[in-house]
Amino acid sequence: MWEVISDACVDGLKVLPFLFLIYVLMEAIESARGKDKIERALSGAGAPVMAGLLGTVPECGFAVAAVKLYDKGLIKTGTLVAAFLAVSDEGLIVLISSGISATEILLFVAVKVLYAIIVGEIVNLIFATRDEAHVCPGKHDCIECGERHDNPWDRLLLHPLFHTVKTGAFIIVLNFVFGTAIHFIGENAFYAFLDKNAVYQPLFAAIIGLIPNCASSIFIAQSFVRGAISFSALLAGLSANAGLGIIILLRNKKNVGKSLVILALVFVAALVLGYVTLPLGL
């Protein structure tokens, strides 16, 4: 049992330097100027394309920002759906820092982005008569994730360090859970059970993905890293996951019904992606 604990800690600690560097990079990107131009692109024609591309940036920031823009009437329903499907929250960071091959990561991102764009465009066509997006007239009504860090010390050191420690702790805990399960069940029996029930993996992953917390995206990504779920389940789970964006969406009590419809669209679309790719052996 001590071996399980030590392995969980060692595997978790090994990724911390990579996590920190990635978070610093993300902070630098999010602090870049020109956010008003991004906002205008999200309000114009082909907005789901921009939403899909921006969704590749890890963390919950863009999902939350998209909901805020949607609540203000600045983006359409399909654009928000595309943003939710494209984002991977902390999951992509875990994949990058865990030694997954560049080919798999690029395939994962490409499939999610392309699928998010297609679904977003279709939803915008369906809701065309109900949605009216307009460009925000005020310079302060642009993209932000709700976490402003004007001090460079906070933005480029303390904030990335905080998220690194938090994500690293989740990874260590999940490694311990997986290690304990394998220890008591037996490695062969554990993976045989998962292989036998592979058809349900995209469904389970998508359900977990709806949990509005970064822990769910980390759990899904770490499950794939350890070989517990398939690539298709990874796609389904992280497509359904929009982190804190889901909480922000449901806060709007005036449009609870429409918010639930949006979540249902995202969940169904994530399931479809998981099960369409499953026969391909992904």
Overview of the structural elements:
This protein is an all-alpha fold and 282 residues long. It has one domain. It is 72% helix and 0% strand. It contains 15 helices and no strands. It has helices spanning 2-14, 16-30, 35-43, 47-54, 61-71, 77-86, 91-97, 102-126, 152-185, 187-196, 201-209, 214-225, 231-240, 244-250, 256-277. Helix 3 (35-43) packs across helix 4 (47-54) and helix 11 packs antiparallel against helix 15 (256-277). The model is unreliable at 134-147 (pLDDT under 50).
Fold topology:
Elements: H1 2-14, H2 16-30, H3 35-43, H4 47-54, H5 61-71, H6 77-86, H7 91-97, H8 102-126, H9 152-185, H10 187-196, H11 201-209, H12 214-225, H13 231-240, H14 244-250, H15 256-277
Keywords:
single chain; 282 residues; mainly alpha; 15 helices; globular
Write a compact overview of the structure shown.
Helix content is 72%, strand content 0%.
Low-confidence stretches: 134-147
Structural class: mainly alpha
What composes the largest sheet?
A: none
Distance between the termini: 33 Å
Query: How many beta-strand runs?
Result: 0
Oligomer status = single chain
Proportion in helices: over 70%
> What Rg is obtained from the alpha carbons, in whole angstroms?
19 Å
Helix-strand string: HHHHHHHHHHHHHHH
Tally of individual domains: 1
Shape: globular
Q: Write down the overall mean pLDDT.
A: 78
> Per DSSP, what share of the residues sits in E-state strands of 2 or more residues?
under 5%
